[in-house]
Amino acid sequence: MTTLLREHAEQQFAEELDALAKSDDRHRPPNWKLSPWAVATYLLGGKLNNSFVIAPKYIGNRRLMEIAISTLATDRALLLLGVPGTAKSWVSEHLAAAITGDSTMLIQGTAGTSEEAIRYGWNYASLLAKGPSHEALVASPMMRAMQAGKLARVEELTRIPADVQDTLITVLSEKTMPIPELNDEVQAVKGFNVIATANNRDRGVNELSSALKRRFNTVILPVPETAEEEVEIVQTRVASLGRALELPAEAPAIEEIRRVVTIFRELRDGKTADGKTKLKSPSGTLSPAEAISVMNSGLALAAHFGDGVLRANDIASGLVGAVVKDPVQDRVVWLEYLETVVKERDGWKDLYRACREVV
Predict the structure, then answer these.
(1) Cβ of 7: how many Cβ atoms within 10 Å?
(2) What pLDDT, in 10s, does the model give residues 246-290?
């Protein structure tokens, strides 16, 4: 039996989705697998009447998720906006999994994304042999979502060239996709909608036109408000990824996660947690996603080149790699932080020595 490296959300959490569907007796919009209330429970966690526990997928402001879900129940598309690492793609995937049971209608935005990726393409062998026909047409994920009444996901919308972005305007406003070569069109089935993600720290992005912005309801996903909230997010995701990757290492002690989160929050905020010392901030975003990456890298080192217990020297290289994106400016910021904060903090001497060895 083939073991998948990464299961889709609807595969990984099939048991939870099934339990929610069986206990969900509230109104469901057309073609939705769950009611908006059940979708929120799936995302934010909770306990069903039969004591079945739903694990939280998003840890943060409940109201933001309620706004996102209710938007998808209307005819307006949803834009999840925020700095890198604020779980935009994660939320997008789980919303699609819970609402339509299919998170695979995905268009990955890049500088090379063409109109065909959003509209449709052609099987050129068939096109040359028979000319334009429905058999020669290759449907995009957007077209397939429209035909099936499902959610289409557009990742990194602002990475897509502006003229290609505007291909979405007709789809979002008229709920139709013209096929002029066949003098035909595809009209969206009830349940169809679009979830797009974009980050507001990316360099060289293509700004959305005002016409396209008006067709989205924008929900801004913030970085976690408190250190405890961020620690919980990192701990949950690290445990999940550790199981998926089958790392033969002990789960990291909460204090190691807390140290990484504290470093990232202080450098991100430009001051120490007690507010007494001002700090320079590096060029990177230092998001929870970066902290998760540092912890997983450390676990792999501890598992394969240590005794399975995560220690300071296991996370030091990941920390340096996360902070020092610019080898000149960021290195100065990191060295200053090591000498003025890490070196002087009680119980952090091991981390200071480990970081100095690899910087």
Answers:
(1) 12
(2) 777 677 778 899 999 999 999 999 999 988 899 999 988 888 989
